[in-house]
Amino acid sequence: MSDQFFYMSDPKMMQKVPRPVKTYHTQTYDRITTQHGFEGQGKTVLITGGATGIGYAMSTAFIKAGIQRLVIIARSPEPLQKAKTELETKYPNTEVLTYSASINDHVRMKEILAEVQSIDVMILNAAAFQPNVPPTELDTEFLSNSFETNVMAPFELIREFLKLPTTSTTPRIVLNVSTAGAVLTVPGTSVYGASKQSLSFLLQHFAVAQEMTKATTEQEEQKVRFVNFHPGVIPSDTAASIIPKGLIEWEDIQLPADFSVWLAGPQSGFLQGRFVWAQWDVDELIALKERVVKDPSFLTIGLVQ
């Protein structure tokens, strides 16, 4: 196992995992499944990479929350069709729209958003991962492709999303499914972590721009809330290829799914532009609201003093 690069094999790295709250969940819990505060009626949720893994869990969670339309964008048509069939069978009251396309196809993404029109929640979940190797074994072509998928493509999606008309009386939401590797030096995730950090930092800037616009227009309904979150150590084919077998205990895939529904609701309104973890207890997070409001750097990507 000497050729494996993973931070949890180093106890010192574990001490660096941020825990601003006392309670750290590894399974979903009642507070975010039944008291999330998100009102799904009449809403449309778009999820990139929403046909498998965490994306599919989020698709299911939002449908359970009563949304009117679910839009899934994914590259592979087979899992996409399977997800559509399963969701429509289980939840016939929600319209499920699927598009087989790469988020790197900017023209196609623009067409899809224009066709869908009104979107209340957009979740940036699709991403390009990397092999579990040090940066010396990667090249600039891989770097460029990773940043195209993990930074440029979602950046363009956000720009197009902001152009869409809205009749909503509540803020629209953009959630970025990020990673601990965006804020921790996790060996084996150099390019992936760097690209996810870049997108997370961009969301902070989008959030600041929104707050400045709100201050000048005072139109709360035109506001868009941007939040980054780490989903946890969730079992997947990609994660299994990076994390040595038996090294850690996997966390519940439903935890980030239910947490994302809570994030899309009004209770998390104070987290504009912040970076949070799905494992953090939401009530203890709410208890930090005053600090979040007073300290613009708290729970953001930046230099720790």
Automatic annotation (TrEMBL):
Keywords: Oxidoreductase. One of its GO terms (molecular function) is oxidoreductase activity. It holds the Pfam family adh_short. Belongs to the short-chain dehydrogenases/reductases (SDR) family. This is Peroxisomal short-chain alcohol dehydrogenase. The lineage of its organism: Eukaryota, Fungi, Dikarya, Ascomycota, Pezizomycotina.
